[in-house]
User: Fold this.
Amino acid sequence: MLKTGNKTKSIENINFMVIDANSNLPFPNDYFDVAYTKKGPRDWYHEGNRIVKAGGIILGFYHAGSHGALRELFPGLYSQIPKPEANDILTELNLYGSGLTDIKVELLEEIEYLSTPEDVLIKKCFGQNQKLREIVWQECLQDVEEIFNKYATSKGLKIINYYHLLTAIAS
Assistant:
């Protein structure tokens, strides 16, 4: 993915890299105008503030849970979890004392349609090892198919995903 991104990018000064974000980033102070993380380390913002020019923008994007069909229709597969409030996100991401200003957390909603019963399990098992995926398929697919077929529309099974979009200004 990184190789393709770097080969096909439309803007020359964009580079896709793999970096250990749990240690100091390999960039000088005040190097970037914008920095973005998606599901990055929770304490990344201090380092982000270091590498972004004063007045630059820091963005973070975090999954905040799914709602709708998954949690309501598959309670044994998906447990109910409360959506965190913005202040909880600020604490969780260790933003207090980061030096960032104008910190805002916005809750975004995305409607998604899952096309097949297998998509329900793929979403549940994303990132899990092969053995666990095989067990989940064996034990759950038949029940998931039954529920999916009962509630799916012509577009598929409607679910709503929530995300937190964090924006802040580097100091």
